[in-house]
Design brief:
This protein is α/β, with parallel strands linked by helices. The chain is built from twelve helices and twelve strands. The protein binds tryptophan.
């Protein structure tokens, strides 16, 4: 009988320990309490990697490295891989989910209406149908947006290479983030009477051919915040440089990978804000509705001096100390 009682008590204690992982059902945030967070990143390219590193660094800096366990999955830019990861987070009973980039956020949002989802670097959360109201998210989804100011990029282009008469776009129509930026770009260029032509890709393997198809037809390239193109950015840059074509992408990482110049947001800052929002919802007990979508609004210019030298563009205004 004593043995049975001991067994029952052991089972009860194990059940209590397991319940600790659940998080909000425990009143005190004891040091032994841990949380599990699924993290789905659309694909590995420098900008998304920078965001993930910044999220991890911020969690560590705030003292949560051993409290919040991150279950990281690389989505490989593949819908099946992402949906499988999203299902796994749900069946694991994760306490929250972070999704880096638009299509990753869409995969996790389709998998759960309950678990809080904090997205990171979703350019246009409304077009992506993740939220209907950025100021007051109604469901289980909120996060941080890297909204793109196309006017700032085209103004920079007009300053550095004023003779551009036709821009070429390369992008994946399956990325709502790109579709949103391209529609803004078209409206902007239509207003200025500047022409454009576009080349489409559906996967990373098509980026080289698509870029080559525009050579001889355009004076410059504008690349939206496209993950497929960013994953093959050095190929785009090689082709453009060989043809003396300036490339204006929508992210600093794509300039570092060989593009000419951009005006964009700071993705380390964006990752930090994502981690802070996660902490508020997971640890401080705030709701998703209490956390409006945050939009980064500070843009800074990044130029690539080697690319500039290779195609003979003067970027000294942005490199001088
Ligand atoms: N904003 C992109 C999205 O909504 C993700 C992204 C972040 C990105 N940084 C980038 C894409 C740099 C291309 C290049 O999915």
């Amino acid at each position: 009988m004593k043995k049975l009682l001991a067994l029952i008590m052991t089972v009860a204690m194990l059940a209590m320990l397991a319940a600790c992982g659940g998080g909000d059902d425990n009143s005190a945030n004891t040091a032994s309490e841990t949380y599990n967070v699924g993290l789905l990143q659309l694909v590995e390219h420098p900008s998304l990697d920078e965001i993930r590193t910044a999220i991890e660094d911020e969690l560590a800096a705030k003292g949560y490295a051993d409290v919040i366990n991150i279950d990281y999955v690389n989505g490989q830019n593949d819908a099946t891989t992402m949906n499988t990861a999203a299902q796994k987070f749900v069946s694991d009973g994760d306490d929250a989910i972070i999704a880096i980039a638009t299509n990753a956020a869409q995969s996790v949002a389709a998998a759960t209406q309950d678990i809080p989802i904090i997205f990171s670097a979703v350019t246009d959360p409304v077009i992506a149908e993740l939220v209907t109201n950025m100021d007051a998210p109604e469901g289980n989804v909120t996060g941080v947006s890297d909204y793109i100011d196309v006017a700032a990029i085209f103004d920079l282009a007009a300053e550095l290479t004023p003779d551009v008469k036709t821009f070429g776009f390369v992008y994946n129509m399956g990325e709502p983030n790109s579709v949103s930026v391209i529609s803004q770009a078209k409206a902007y260029l239509d207003g200025k009477g500047i022409a454009y032509t576009e080349a489409f890709v559906t996967n990373i393997g098509e980026v080289t051919t698509a870029t080559q198809s525009l050579m001889g037809k355009v004076d410059a390239l504008f690349l939206p915040i496209d993950n497929t193109v960013a994953s093959a950015m050095s190929n785009v840059a090689d082709i453009a440089i060989a043809n003396n074509i300036p490339v204006y992408p929508a992210a600093d990482s794509m300039v570092n990978d060989g593009g000419l110049a951009t005006a964009g947001v700071n993705y380390t800052q964006l990752g930090k804000q994502t981690a802070d929002m996660l902490i508020r919802i997971l640890i401080d007990g705030e709701t998703v509705a209490e956390n409006p979508v945050e939009v980064l609004t500070e843009y800074s210019v990044t130029v690539n001096p080697e690319t500039a030298a290779a195609i003979g563009v003067d970027v000294s205004a942005y490199t001088a100390e």
